[in-house]
Amino acid sequence: MSFITAIAILGAVLMLLALASAYLRWLPVTTSAVCLFLGLGIGPLGLGLVSLDIRESTHWLERLTEGAVLFSLFGTGIKLRLSFGRSAWRCAYLLAGPVMVASIVGVAAVAHYALHLGWGPAVLLGAMLAPTDPVLANMVQVNSAQDFDRVRFGLSGEAGLNDGTAFPFVLFALLLIEHGGLGGNWLGHWALKDVVWGVAGGLLIGYGLGRLLGQLMIFLRVRHQDSTLSPNDFLALALIALAYSLAWYLGAFGFLAVFAAGLGLRQAEAHSTHSDVPAEHLTHPVIGHHELPPEHAVAGPLDELEPPQLAAGVMMGDIMAFGSLVERSMEVLLITLLGALLWGYWDWRGVGLGLALFCVIRPLAVWALGGSRALLSGHQSALLGWFGIRGIGSIYYLCFALQHGLPEEISRTCTSITLTVVALSIVLHGVSTQPLLDHYERRNSAKVD
Q1: DSSP 160-187
Q2: Neighbours of 419 (CB within 10 A)
Q3: How far apart are CA 332 and CA 34, in angstroms?
Q4: Which of 64, 141, 371, 376 has its CA 20 to 30 A from that of 6?
């Protein structure tokens, strides 16, 4: 498939979604589920307009999924405003740590004993399928920087941090397949480089860069009185690019660095404004504010805002709007392409593995390791157990693994099972997400009343 064809597909699907939005909002499915079925319709199973072979498209598909995950991770990071010692973060740590490891082990065990795969491919499937996707899980994540709900905050933190758990296991599985066992010196090297430094280095590099540049940009905009004139989308792109590339050059995990850069930028905003309210909720920039003088660039009286609040509010609002637009556009394209790919890779073994993961492995891991009743209610634990949505991140890990020379049989097996589980997640979670969230919100409202 050519680049022009991909752009044409994106344009057509976006136009269809825009024209049909009045009807789609009443359907009990997410936009991702609609795009998946659209992809099936234009693929070999339907009109035959698009024919994809993932083995021939691995390189550019890896880059597209990589970009989508980067924007999603950065956007997730800047929505998490709570200080790191707060109890809501404990939920994220538990989900991204022990629950994630237990899910990887559970998937690997089912793949090995039930599907009769070797331990290398089994662990690789576990690492690719266990993480909650930062892109497709956006419906169940925090709505804004003022949303501190345990379920949404925990899922958001997990989606941002799970690369620190999943990616080392992806690398571990590839090394296990390459070496044929645990013998040799590679295990210690993996533990030091990919676990200790990869995780800690990524978080430190990203957070330090985001915090430093965030405070510097707010200071400069206040000093030069150009709070509404600076191109904030440039800052978002710069932070993503610099955090990712610097982490890569230093041998740390770039996804973690980009997520931590978003966290650092948000903490810079909180530190500079000295307010409990996120700065973007205090300012309301008008369209075209880059071309207007400050007194006309923001709706409402400027004299009620401190200069750092104005600078930080416009900056954060622009960055979040820009990131959300890019993320949603790439999500539409990639899920549509997944639908076109799916017919050639559907594998019934993936259905069984996916159901085991969604209905048994993750719910049991959350229930057993998700903390005490003081942290989560039974209803919240049940929702966290179900909302482990798989998507673009799993496809990225798959493309990454395919680029590292997997044997043909392992490559075919991992591809078909991974794509099947992702598609199953899009459908099952797409149908259940909104009803379950509505029920959860009604319960919370009743308790408040």
Answers
A1: HHTHHHHHHHHHHHHHHHHHSSS-SSHH
A2: 22
A3: 9
A4: 141
* Contact indicator for 339, 36 with CB cutoff of 8 Å: yes
Per-residue pLDDT tens digits for 112-132: 999 999 999 999 999 999 998
Give yes or no for a contact between 173 and 184, defined as CB atoms under 8 angstroms apart: no
Q: Where are the domains of the chain?
A: 3-448
Q: CA 104 to CA 243: how far, in whole Å?
A: 27
pLDDT, position 86: 81
pTM: 0.91
Written as six digits, the tokens of 62 are: 């890896």
Q: In whole angstroms, what is the distance from residue 52 CA to residue 147 CA?
A: 40
Q: Yes or no: say if 77 and 259 are a contact pair by the CB < 8 Å rule.
A: yes
Integer Cα distance of 315 and 285 in angstroms? 10
Q: Are 104 and 166 in contact (CB under 8 A)?
A: yes
d(CA 90, CA 384): 13
The span from the CA of 414 to the CA of 70, in Å, is 23
Q: Are 440 and 146 in contact (CB under 8 A)?
A: no
Digit-coded pLDDT (tens) for 233-259: 888 999 999 999 999 999 999 999 999
**What tens digit of pLDDT does each residue of 152-196 get?**
898 899 989 988 889 999 999 999 998 888 877 899 999 999 999
Cα separation values, 36 from 70, 289, 371, Å: 22, 37, 35
Q: Provide CATH code, domain 3-448.
A: 1.20.1530.20
The confidence band for 449, taking pLDDT boundaries of 50, 70 and 90, is very low
The tokens describing 26, both together, are 């009443």
Contact criterion met (CB below 8 Å) for 256 and 164: yes
Give the span between the Cα atoms of 328 and 318, in whole angstroms: 16
Rounded to 5°, angle at Cα 379 from 374 and 380: 65
